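Customer escalation, tier 2.

The customer says the design service returned an amino acid string that "doesn't look like it belongs to this structure." They asked us to rerun it and document both sides in this ticket. The original structure tokens are below, unchanged.
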């Protein structure tokens, strides 16, 4: 599979936009291009596409974080290399002047984790209305659905009515799953699990269930091949299916439908969107080492990394400038 499946992080906004973000698959208009659902990619490194600007962008985001990858275009190549040198010094945790795959893997995981917690911090004050450093279900419900609940007649004849009617109980179910102590109030960790369920083991069943509910249009509790394709592709009348759609039909038959009964159950959906045998950070670290290791000693010097700087932080789409001003104790 292409690497689009790697980028499955939930967006955040107020009102309807926030509701859309909390269940993005259910509410977005159907795209005319391929849409990915895999929380972790299921492709092997050998199947990666050729390294062009688009594929470098993922390397940049994995190495620096999605937010910090946005403004690196503003830097010259010399500035980029200088700042990359500083980050290399931090990655080299044992100070032996080499960066190993394990050190890169640790760094990438920390970058991912920081993005998630920074994301929650940005919206925390919008929901913690009584400033007690916790968010109750009522606080979240009022912040997200308050206008709808207070003015239901305005939504009676609109598609938004169906949207909110569906989203409210779904969000409540997810909130309860994240609320481990059952006090109807979320700590920062619990609220992070609520907003980013794909990152928490105890929330994986919610991710699977919501995916099933989104795609299962006939309500039989399974995903058949046509539902699987319809979730990725909006077929125009009498138009031919692109080659990638035909390939996805083959994927469904050969790799998704494990028991060959023509449909996906919850276990098969879990196997599809939450592959257990793939470590994203490990794969990316191995890829970066493989592509930059000129002397093939399976570790990188600072010089080898700087020589291949464009793959790590190159001028296409990365922002490390902000990162350098932060306190890196959290990384």
């Amino acid at each position: 599979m292409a690497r689009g499946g790697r980028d499955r992080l939930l967006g955040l906004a107020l009102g309807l936009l926030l509701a859309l973000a909390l269940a993005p698959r259910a509410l977005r208009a159907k795209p005319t291009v391929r849409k990915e659902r895999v929380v972790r990619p299921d492709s092997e490194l050998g199947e990666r596409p050729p390294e062009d600007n688009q594929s470098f962008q993922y390397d940049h985001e994995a190495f620096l974080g999605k937010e910090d990858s946005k403004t690196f275009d503003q830097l010259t190549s010399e500035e980029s290399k200088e700042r990359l040198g500083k980050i290399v010094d931090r990655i080299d945790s044992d100070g032996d002047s080499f960066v190993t795959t394990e050190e890169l893997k640790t760094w990438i995981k920390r970058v991912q984790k920081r993005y998630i917690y920074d994301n929650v911090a940005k919206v925390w004050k919008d929901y913690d209305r009584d400033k007690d450093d916790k968010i109750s279900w009522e606080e979240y419900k009022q912040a997200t659905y308050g206008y709808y609940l207070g003015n239901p007649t305005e939504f009676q004849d609109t598609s938004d009515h169906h949207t909110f009617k569906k989203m409210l109980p779904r969000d409540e179910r997810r909130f309860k799953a994240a609320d481990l102590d059952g006090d109807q109030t979320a700590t920062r960790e619990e609220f992070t699990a609520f907003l980013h369920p794909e990152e928490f083991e105890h929330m994986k069943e919610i991710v699977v269930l919501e995916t099933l509910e989104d795609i299962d249009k006939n309500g039989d509790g399974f995903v058949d091949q046509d539902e699987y394709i319809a979730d990725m592709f909006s077929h125009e009348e009498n138009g031919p299916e692109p080659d990638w759609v035909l390939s996805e039909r083959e994927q469904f038959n050969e790799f998704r439908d494990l028991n060959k009964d023509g449909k996906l159950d919850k276990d098969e959906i879990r196997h599809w969107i939450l592959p257990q045998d793939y470590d994203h950070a490990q794969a990316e670290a191995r890829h970066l080492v493989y592509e930059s290791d000129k002397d093939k000693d399976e570790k990188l010097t600072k010089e080898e990394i700087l020589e291949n700087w464009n793959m790590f932080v190159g001028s296409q789409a990365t922002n490390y400038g902000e990162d350098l001003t932060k306190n890196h104790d959290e990384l």
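Tier 2 assessment: The sequence is consistent with the input. The mean pLDDT is 79. The chain has 16 helices and four strands. Sent an explanation to the customer and offered a walkthrough call.
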